[in-house]
Specification:
- It is a single chain.
- This protein has 153 residues and is α/β, with parallel strands linked by helices.
- Helix 1 runs parallel beside helix 2, helix 3 packs across helix 4 and helix 4 packs across helix 5.
- The longest helix is centred in the middle third of the chain and has 20 residues.
Length: 153
């Protein structure tokens, strides 16, 4: 079995929220953790708190493949502060995952669909069968990590 991790980041009510899901067989999706930074902390401290929390959650776990779900962003649109914040959170989580996991990819929704040989919507629908709505993006990322593991096997 291949231990795989999927992580999705979001900005909810002005604060970063991280959700992680694992799979070992590509069928069973397991919620690992949810972490939300404190909204009353300044932005730099929120990022540092995320780094520490994710590192702690992953410390005793060994994953071969991980996918961090990167936001779908049209580069022709203006970069807002919210988008910049989300990109910063994605970067912090990716840096931690690279220390804890053997292979890490950062993929958009379309790229997750491509890796899984289907559409983004199909992967999300599959993850939605096993997870609560707020964990579906992380579940899709875990399925993509598993698909990457099958390719490299």
């Amino acid at each position: 079995m291949v231990a795989c991790l999927g992580v999705a980041c979001a900005i909810e009510t002005g604060r970063p929220v991280i959700r992680a899901v694992s799979t070992q067989d590509g069928n069973a999706l397991v919620e690992l953790f949810r972490f939300a930074a404190r909204s009353d902390d300044d932005w730099a401290l929120q990022l540092r708190t995320i780094q520490s929390a994710v590192a702690t959650e992953l410390r005793d776990r060994d994953f071969e493949f991980a996918v961090v779900r990167h936001m779908d962003f049209d580069t022709r649109r203006r970069l807002t502060q919210g988008v910049a914040n989300r990109i910063a959170v994605d970067g912090v989580v990716t840096a931690v995952a690279r220390v804890r996991c053997q292979r890490v990819k950062v993929l958009t929704g379309r790229e997750i669909g491509d890796v899984c040989s289907c559409s983004k919507e199909d992967v999300l629908a599959r993850a939605a069968l096993a997870l609560p709505p707020k964990f579906v993006e992380a579940g899709a990322a875990a399925l993509a990590a598993f698909a990457l593991g099958l390719r490299d096997a």
